[in-house]
């Protein structure tokens, strides 16, 4: 293994049925894809060497995203377009690589710099919901969902006007009431969907589910996680000027 | 993207939804409307087990090479999803197109172990296919069984339309052609099955009639039509270098039991251990050309991206080009950061050298399978491993830095005495003593020896098919005694002993040599809630016992009864090449403690030479 390696950052999307693949399994999927593509990735030393690869903020099961990242160390480079093409030859339905950039030598790992993510929350349509009448789960009606949606969308513009936004949050030890307002950077209705820009990462991490819960409380409707589909749009970090910008701006495309 | 059969709400509410969505790397996509035959391949256990099975990967690949066939997969839904599907009446579906199994032309079920029998009923039931074959109509798939347990298919004969006896690569084309010609020509289901029963290797249970003697043994086993063959000869691949092998095996998302490339280097075994069914049914031993498997190894790593490759065979040490191939792998795979795992290697200078290169000595252990504690009993079972060989191998390894040893034994072998049982701790003790004879500075700390015993189950098509299985109480007593004897050894602190429970083995013993009378028991056990019997968490012995009781079936008739030499066995209609005459002479030799040489030392004329190849004809024998 050569001493000098190049750090690259890969942006990818996890869509469709891939949302049922957990974070660890997706990492294994990429490790295998890298091998199939015969990329010149760098390995650790030892009896079972592993690829030098690290993933940014993990995505919860059931959530889709078009703004996911991982970092990898390579022994040699090819142009970004080549990288993207070769990666995508190895993908399956639902997952694809969007871009590859070269990071400066001293760049920190994606995992450690993630500061925010934005999401679009759609209400599920009739097809996605399980309305089977089996006497075991509560009956749910299409009209219930439509009604909920209307009530929730009504409160979206006002939620941030409140002094505090309190929800129950489960920690490892117990449940406690927490004010999540500081984690919400933006909250608005966009084309009948909810758009939210939230704190993510080690400093403060706010899940879109918590905001949805707060919205439901405010609208006086019951929160059911199966009513929504959560989609992450992009992952951000804080640049030198303290602006939140896409992780893709941490390096340069390879020409 | 194809629609999923399960809603988001269901998928998010169950364990590991990835088991049910398909979409894996190398999954085959076809339009079901463009093919003549839809084949659903089933491994009746959970996804992670089923996806690890080589046989299915081979057939999946072979079938899908045909343009007129689309082969898809299904596995047993885990109990959490099983409940949901029953509650909501969701029919079982294939992974590829997520469409109902009932709509397929064929449902092929691989039978790898007896304890999956209730899972077969689960799959049929959830699919909406009548559980008993006699209740099926033209709207139902033809249910085909194959794999090791189909060498005595009788306990589950009532649930299957066809059993494919032997190796799957050879005859499915004939079955498909036959079916294709008849499926739309107005033939009845019975007509189609009748036609299939005439294809070599196919056993259609409904075309045979059985009768029993008063004592419960089989009196006759006759075809009901004159043109249905009286014996079914197993199918066997004789051009072993010219048979499809999956160069692009499926790569699952979730971690499965065998998360690696598996490369078959040899089929069959030359050794002839008398307890081993695989050693008989896969005769004659055939090897793959070394250049061919080198090529496969490279291609398969490239097509899967797996980080480990392992060799599959019953006894890799007997593969003649093993050295060449192993050193090739070490060289080639090392460069690609691929780990190599080599199961079933005899411990000698070569294997120790290899192990040193491919694994961390500190973590790895030596494995021996003497199966019996004394030389006398090892001669009875024809296991060629002597104490001298074990000690020599172990000493070489100890000098090389190893200090962990694993031993596999069986308890309840024919003719076994207390002395044989006590031989187990005695052998382990001697290995420990040999270790401590090495000067302190030349050995690597403390030794740790782990021994385990399983409960011997006599299998059909082995010399022990006549033997009585030990009764479970005596087995447990004997196991306790072995455990106590272990505690009395000088080096007891370095020795660890475990033994398997008896319940499951007893059931295996019943079904291994069972007959058609048992289908009711399996049916009732299933109806009372038994599924996933191979999983300790789900196995419910009481329910099984109730099912035997209800049907007035005596387990001991199948297990602890020694058979007469002239008894007609339920599986005797199958011809595996190896003759009953040979097996009987082996049974007699066993009782005398006389060993039989292996196929390469000297041919014993077992009968498998009739297939015209393999080890029987090596070096112009
Ligand atoms: S015929 Fe001889 S060489 Fe061939 S499998 Fe039988 S014993 Fe072995």
Could you characterize the architecture of this molecule?
Chain A has 255 residues and is α+β, with helices and mostly antiparallel strands. Helices cover 23% and strands 32% of the residues of chain A. The model of chain A is unreliable at 133-137 (pLDDT under 50). The longest helix of chain B has 20 residues, at 418-437. Among the domains of chain B are: 8-233, Cobalamin-binding domain (Rossmann fold); 360-500, Transcription Regulator spoIIAA, CATH 3.30.750. In chain B, helix 10 (322-335) runs parallel beside helix 11 and helix 13 (387-399) packs parallel to helix 14. Chain B has helices spanning 8-13, 47-50, 54-64, 79-88, 117-127, 172-182, 189-196, 278-281, 290-304, 322-335, 349-358, 375-380, 387-399, 418-437, 472-487, 503-512, 519-527, 541-550, 555-558, 580-592; strands spanning 37-43, 69-75, 106-110, 142-146, 162-164, 202-203, 208-212, 218-223, 232-233, 261-264, 266-267, 286-287, 308-312, 339-341, 366-371, 404-411, 448-455, 495-499, 574-575. Chain B contains 20 helices and 19 strands. Chain A binds chain B through residues 16-18, 20-22, 25-26, 28-29, 31-36, 38, 43, 47-49, 51, 61-62, 90, 92-94, 124, 128-130, 132, 134, 136, 225-226, 229, and chain B through 1, 4, 7-12, 17-18, 21, 23-25, 27, 87-89, 251, 253-255, 301-307, 336-337, 339, 359-360. Iron/sulfur cluster binds at residues 283-284, 599, 603-606, 608-609, 615-616 of chain B.
Mean pLDDT of chain B: 94
CATH class of the domain at 8-233 in chain B: Alpha Beta
**Radius of gyration of chain B, rounded?**
25 Å
Distinct small-molecule ligands in the complex: iron/sulfur cluster
Q: Give the N-to-C terminal Cα separation of chain A.
A: 25 Å
- What is the helix content of chain A? 10-25%
Low-confidence stretches of chain A: 133-137
- Strands of the widest sheet of chain B, in order across it, are 2-1-3-4-5-6
Poorly predicted regions of chain B = none
Oligomer class: heterodimer
Beta-strand share of residues of chain A: 25-35%
């Amino acid at each position: 293994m050569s001493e000098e390696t190049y750090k690259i950052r890969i942006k990818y999307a996890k869509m469709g049925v891939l949302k049922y693949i957990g974070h660890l399994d997706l990492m294994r999927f990429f490790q295998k894809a890298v091998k199939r593509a015969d990329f010149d990735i760098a390995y650790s030393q030892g009896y079972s060497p592993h690829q030098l690869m690290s993933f940014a903020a993990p995505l919860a099961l059931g959530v889709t995203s078009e703004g996911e990242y991982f970092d990898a160390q390579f022994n040699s480079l090819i142009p970004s377009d080549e990288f993207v093409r070769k990666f995508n030859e190895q993908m399956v339905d639902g997952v694809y690589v969007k871009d590859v950039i070269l990071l400066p030598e001293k760049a920190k790992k994606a995992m450690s710099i993630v500061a925010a993510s934005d999401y679009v929350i759609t209400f599920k349509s009739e097809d996605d919901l399980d309305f089977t009448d089996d006497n075991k789960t509560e009956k749910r009606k299409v009209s219930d969902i439509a009604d909920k949606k209307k009530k929730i969308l009504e409160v979206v513009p006002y939620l941030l006007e409140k002094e505090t936004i309190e929800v129950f949050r489960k920690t490892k030890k117990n449940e406690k009431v927490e004010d999540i307002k500081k984690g919400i950077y933006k909250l608005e209705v966009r084309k009948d969907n909810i758009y939210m820009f939230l704190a993510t990462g080690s400093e403060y991490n706010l899940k879109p589910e918590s905001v949805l819960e707060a919205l439901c409380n405010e609208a006086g409707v019951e929160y059911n996680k199966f009513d929504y589909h959560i989609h992450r749009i992009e992952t951000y970090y804080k640049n030198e000027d303290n602006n939140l910008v896409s992780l893709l701006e941490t390096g340069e495309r390879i020409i | 993207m194809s629609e999923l059969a399960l809603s988001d709400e269901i998928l998010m509410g169950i364990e590991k939804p990835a088991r049910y969505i398909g979409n894996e790397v190398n999954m085959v996509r076809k339009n079901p409307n463009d093919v003549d035959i839809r084949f659903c391949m089933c491994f009746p256990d959970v996804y992670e087990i089923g996806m690890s099975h080589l046989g299915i990967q081979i057939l999946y690949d072979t079938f899908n090479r045909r343009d007129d066939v689309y082969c898809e997969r299904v596995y047993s839904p885990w109990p959490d999803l099983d409940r949901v599907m029953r509650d909501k009446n969701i029919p079982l579906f294939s992974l590829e197109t997520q469409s109902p199994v009932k709509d397929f032309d064929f449902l092929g079920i691989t039978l790898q172990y007896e304890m999956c029998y209730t899972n077969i009923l689960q799959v049929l039931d959830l699919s909406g296919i009548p559980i008993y074959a006699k209740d099926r109509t033209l709207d139902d798939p033809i249910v085909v069984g194959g794999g090791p347990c189909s060498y005595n298919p009788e306990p589950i004969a009532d649930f299957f339309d066809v059993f494919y006896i032997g190796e799957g690569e050879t005859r499915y084309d004939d079955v498909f052609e036959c079916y294709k010609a008849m499926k739309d020509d107005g033939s009845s289901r019975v007509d189609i099955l009748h036609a299939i029963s005439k294809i070599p290797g196919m056993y259609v249970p409904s075309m045979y009639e059985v009768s029993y003697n008063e004592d419960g043994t089989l009196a006759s086993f006759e075809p009901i039509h004159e043109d249905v063959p009286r014996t079914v000869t197993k199918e066997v691949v004789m051009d072993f270098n010219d048979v499809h092998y999956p160069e692009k095996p499926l790569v699952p998302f979730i971690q499965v039991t065998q998360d690696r490339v598996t490369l078959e280097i040899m089929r069959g075994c030359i050794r002839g251990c008398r307890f081993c069914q695989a050693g008989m049914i896969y005769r004659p031993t055939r090897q793959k050309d070394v250049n061919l498997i080198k090529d496969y190894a490279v291609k398969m790593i490239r097509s899967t991206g797996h980080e480990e490759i392992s060799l599959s065979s019953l006894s890799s040490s007997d593969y003649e080009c093993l050295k060449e191939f192993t050193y090739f792998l070490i060289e080639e795979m090392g460069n690609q950061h691929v780990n190599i795992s080599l199961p079933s290697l005899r411990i000698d200078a070569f294997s120790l050298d290899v192990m040193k290169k491919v694994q961390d000595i500190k973590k790895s252990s030596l494995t021996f399978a003497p199966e019996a504690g004394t030389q006398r009993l090892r001669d009875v079972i024809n296991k060629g491993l002597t104490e001298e060989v074990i000690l020599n191998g172990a000493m070489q390894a100890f000098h090389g830095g190893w200090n962990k040893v694993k031993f596999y034994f069986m308890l309840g072998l024919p003719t076994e005495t207390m002395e044989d049982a006590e031989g187990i701790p005695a052998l382990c003790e001697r290995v420990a003593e040999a270790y401590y004879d090495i000067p302190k500075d030349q050995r690597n700390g403390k030794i740790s020896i782990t021994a385990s015993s399983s409960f011997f189950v006599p299998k059909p098509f082995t010399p022990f098919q006549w033997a009585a299985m030990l009764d479970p109480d005596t087995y447990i007593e004997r196991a306790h005694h072995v455990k106590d004897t272990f505690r009395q050894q000088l080096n007891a602190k370095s020795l660890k002993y475990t033994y398997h429970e008896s319940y499951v083995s007893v059931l295996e013993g019943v079904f291994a040599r069972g007959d058609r009378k048992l289908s009711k028991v399996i049916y009732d056990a299933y109806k009372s809630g038994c599924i996933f019997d191979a999983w300790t968490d789900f196995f419910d012995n009481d329910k099984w016992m109730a099912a035997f009781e209800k049907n007035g079936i005596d387990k001991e008739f199948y297990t602890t009864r020694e058979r007469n030499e002239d008894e007609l066995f339920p599986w005797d209609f199958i011809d595996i090449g190896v003759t009953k005459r040979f097996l009987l002479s082996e049974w007699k030799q066993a009782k005398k403690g006389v060993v039989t040489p292996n196929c390469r030392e000297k041919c014993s004329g077992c009968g498998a030479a009739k297939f015209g190849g393999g080890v029987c004809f090596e070096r112009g024998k």
